[in-house]
């Protein structure tokens, strides 16, 4: 048993070393100059549950690493956070979103509202947030066409100054969504402290909703809570027609997921807007 224990330990150690090495490699690449050409933003459309009309889209960051193909944002964003690179990357995402949205806006393509994600680490930096929000505010697109998504726990770490700054943009029309709603532990405090405009039901609830009545109850309670507070409720991770119908019957406002569309390039999203116009 001892032998076994040691070999398990050895295995574990080499796994760890691999992880650390990979982390260091990715961090090095992330910090390098070529990275700008390898990052891009995809958009995943959101639709009204009831009318199935396009209402907007969520911007999702992608890294096309030359050898490792596509690396999940969950992996490289965590590295960027640890290495102090997330402010730069987050600002780049905001610039990208603003530039795409301006193009669509100038071409009179109705994209509804474009949302993008902010890392908790970004919310901790007042200067970073100032720069980012300024960027969004200076765009020729109305603030009401943008929405920021933050997770429930992210605001916990933000300073009162940063929250006040965020609030001032929200009061001028920018949307603020609580992402992965229901998976954190401080949901209700967040709702009380921030002027939130939207709840995003986490995909884990949508996934099990048709199998487990308790999950359906959570979805239904979230919709009721959101509506009681005057908020829009969107469900993510919708993968089947049945899920979409169930969400509609539970009163959920909007939906996003592979069943409707996978995240797509800015060009594809633009063609979708073109089609809609005709
Ligand atoms: P998220 O904000 O919860 O984004 C939703 C994730 O669910 C996306 O994964 C999306 O591609 C995926 N998804 C959408 N529809 C479906 C579906 O029907 N089924 C399933 N199984 N998945 C679906 P993605 O793009 O890999 O992003 C993962 C996470 O990385 C995001 O989760 C978000 O937390 C983070 N992220 C992505 N882009 C950014 C960014 O620009 N900045 C920051 N800070 N985080 C980002
Ligand atoms: Ca999100
Ligand atoms: Ca989410
Ligand atoms: Ca998530």
UniProtKB/TrEMBL annotation:
Domain of life where this protein originates: Bacteria
Section covered of the full-length record: 546 to 823 of 823
Protein's name in the database: EAL domain-containing protein
Domain (EAL): residue spans on this chain: 23-277
């Amino acid at each position: 048993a001892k032998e076994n224990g040691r070999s398990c330990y050895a295995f574990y150690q080499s796994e760890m070393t691999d992880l650390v090495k990979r982390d260091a490699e990715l961090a090095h690449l992330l910090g390098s100059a070529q990275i700008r050409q390898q990052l891009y933003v995809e958009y995943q459309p959101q639709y009204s549950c009831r009318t199935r009309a396009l209402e907007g889209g969520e911007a999702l960051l992608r890294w096309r690493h030359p050898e490792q193909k596509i690396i999940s944002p969950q992996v490289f964003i965590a590295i960027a956070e640890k290495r102090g690179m997330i402010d730069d990357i987050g600002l780049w995402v905001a610039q990208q979103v603003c530039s795409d949205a301006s193009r669509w806006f100038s071409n009179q393509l109705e994209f509804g509202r474009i949302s993008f994600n902010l890392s908790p680490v970004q919310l901790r930096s007042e200067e970073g947030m100032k720069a980012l929000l300024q960027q969004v505010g200076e765009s020729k697109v109305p603030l009401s066409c943008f929405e920021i998504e933050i997770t429930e726990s992210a605001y916990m770490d933000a300073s009162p100054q940063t929250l006040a700054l965020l609030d001032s943009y929200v009061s001028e029309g920018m949307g603020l969504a609580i992402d992965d709603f229901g998976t954190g532990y401080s949901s209700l405090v967040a709702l009380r402290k921030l002027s939130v405009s939207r709840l995003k039901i986490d995909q884990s609830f949508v996934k099990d909703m048709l199998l487990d009545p308790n999950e359906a109850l959570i979805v239904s309670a979230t919709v009721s809570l959101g509506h009681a507070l005057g908020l829009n409720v969107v469900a993510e991770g919708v993968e089947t027609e049945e899920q979409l119908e169930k969400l509609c019957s539970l009163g959920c406002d909007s939906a996003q997921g592979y069943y409707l569309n996978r995240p797509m390039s800015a060009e594809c999203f633009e063609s979708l807007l073109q089609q809609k116009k005709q």
